[in-house]
Amino acid sequence: MIVFRKSFLAITGLFICFFLTAHLGANFLLLLPAETARNYYNSYSAFLRGNIFVTVIAYVNYLCILFHIYYAVVISVKNKSARSIQYELKNNSDNSSWSSQNMLFLGALIFCFLVIHMANFWFKVKFQHNESDLYQMVFNLFHEPLYVAIYVFSALPLGLHLSHGVKSAFKTLGLYHKKYLRWIADLSVIYATVVGIGFGIIPIILFFK
Ligand code: HEM
Questions:
Q1: Distance between CA 103 and CA 162 in Å, rounded?
Q2: To test the ligand 1 pocket, which listed residue (24, 60, 122, 166) has its Cβ within 8 A of the most ligand atoms?
Q3: Could you tell me which of 167, 164, 193, 196 has the C-alpha nearest to residue 180?
Q4: For a pocket test of ligand 1, which of 49, 53, 121, 139 has the largest count of ligand atoms closer than 8 A to its C-beta?
Q5: DSSP helix/strand/coil, 194
Q6: Structure pTM?
Q7: Rounded to 5 degrees, what angle do the CA atoms 208, 110, 37 make?
Q8: S-S: 171 plus which of 2, 14, 107, 176, CB 3.0-4.6 Å?
Q9: Can you tell me whether residue 190 is helix, strand or coil?
Q10: Does 27 contact ligand 1 (Cβ within 6 A)?
Q11: How many Å apart are CA 40 and CA 123, to the nearest integer?
């Protein structure tokens, strides 16, 4: 059962990474010159909303987020009750980084960010049909220093969570051959850094735009 739970955690986590990569790519459009950014960002989001394939992916992503949280909590609770095993594993360098020891805490911070983020955009688009100028909505939000701070600081737990999570997911799914151990670990850190810095820098650049 533990293998099933960990595999599910890994698969849902990797799917969320796929979403995050596409989401970051789309949000980089915001950095183009103002009118080009407005055109591209608004056309892109209109295209996404009208596409059934993207809608299915969006719902799979929502489910992945919910299951990822559920299995992360279940596994952590089980691990706590088998604390002695945890202590035995502590010598393993893979388990001794600060991020790996605090994945649930980092995940909780990301979850808090996500609640704020959904209220900022997703809720307004889906339920208030306030989607005519999404670029302007993002632009306005990132001219409020409090939100800039929330988005920038939330990129840190996101990066730390990913730097351990991606590596760990590959390991759980058996895609972590000893020969490529260093390579996958490095790739996870590079991916996490790009995503963390990418999401963290967009609000700052928009603030000064
Ligand atoms: C610069 C930072 C970000 C910006 C400007 C941004 C912008 C947006 C916007 C405008 C939407 C609404 C799109 C729509 O419904 O048409 C959205 C949705 C969403 N964002 Fe972000 N986002 C950012 C960072 C993040 C991060 C770091 C995460 C995850 C940790 C995230 C997760 C999501 C999710 C799950 C949705 C819902 C997607 C869907 O309905 O398919 N976003 N974001």
A1: 9
A2: 122
A3: 167
A4: 121
A5: helix
A6: 0.92
A7: 35
A8: 176
A9: helix
A10: yes
A11: 22
